[in-house]
Design brief:
Rossmann fold; single chain; globular; binds 2-amino-2-deoxy-6-O-phosphono-alpha-D-glucopyranose; 7-stranded parallel sheet; alpha/beta; 8 helices
């Protein structure tokens, strides 16, 4: 695992975007594994900037997202489909029909099966990840065990609390989500994870410093992947006790 310590969150985001951009430049028909959340929202503007400056072309790119809330229509402002459209896809020349965010409404069993099939079609060239305060990746929450495949996850109280900042009221936060399993995430050829903020310090410490797979910190599964880059700012590195 490679750890990059930056001077600021902004710089972390710029570096992550450069890594993703390089993948697309080297392979114009790349398949991107994409993520949502506040961290990802700060990375997409750098990719959009490079597209606007003619340095990136997404016309042959395809994408698949990690997860989606159960119960939110794709046009709900807090759905992850809506997030992707309004934070990224609307601003670049990606062909919308080559983007996939699983639906969180309708026949959920069918959606899970469709999502799994899409994941298995071919590995993503690069997977962008954030991390939850409790160490979740995608929506794989801590527990006695971790699921390898696409499944419906019951969200942790702490995740609902953390994500309530995007909703008017905590009660509006969905209680469940459809997510790739950790085995699906590990299929990526390359993984780049970005984190910031003192609330992520414990999870990041377990990820970059510990020597064990710990189901109470799902991000630790990334330790077995051969090509992971973790990008954190100095403030978080210090809080996590990481010396570069
Ligand atoms: C959500 C997403 C995760 C994301 C996490 C952290 O729960 N399912 O994929 O990593 O939020 O989000 P943020 O970057 O807003 O802290």
């Amino acid at each position: 695992m490679r750890v990059i310590v930056t001077e600021s969150f902004d710089q972390s985001c710029e570096i992550a975007a450069r890594i993703i951009g390089d993948v697309v430049r080297n392979k114009p028909d790349s398949r991107l594994g994409l993520a949502t959340g506040g961290t990802a929202a700060a990375i997409y503007p750098f990719l959009i900037r490079d597209y606007e400056e003619g340095k990136l072309d997404f016309s042959k790119v395809s994408s698949i997202n990690l997860d989606e809330y159960v119960g939110l229509n794709p046009d709900h402002p807090q759905s992850y489909r809506y997030f992707m459209d309004h934070n990224f896809f609307d601003f670049v020349n990606i062909d919308r029909k080559n983007t996939y965010v699983v639906s969180g409404v309708g026949d959920l069993e069918k959606n899970v099966a469709e999502f799994q099939q899409k994941v298995l079609e071919k590995p993503v060239d690069i997977q962008l990840l954030g991390i939850g305060e409790n160490g979740h990746i995608g929506f794989n929450e801590p527990g006695d065990t971790l699921k390898l495949s696409v499944h419906i996850e019951i969200l942790d109280e702490s995740t609902i609390e953390a994500n309530s900042r995007f909703f008017n009221d905590k009660n509006e936060v969905p209680k469940k989500a459809i997510t790739m399993g950790v085995g699906d995430i590990l299929r990526a050829k390359r993984i780049v994870l970005v984190a910031t903020g003192k609330k992520k310090a414990k999870a990041i410490r377990g990820l970059i410093l510990g020597d064990e797979l710990d189901c109470s910190n799902p991000s630790t599964v990334l330790k077995v992947h051969p090509n992971v880059t973790v990008i954190i700012d100095r403030e978080l590195a210090d809080m996590a006790g990481y010396k570069a």
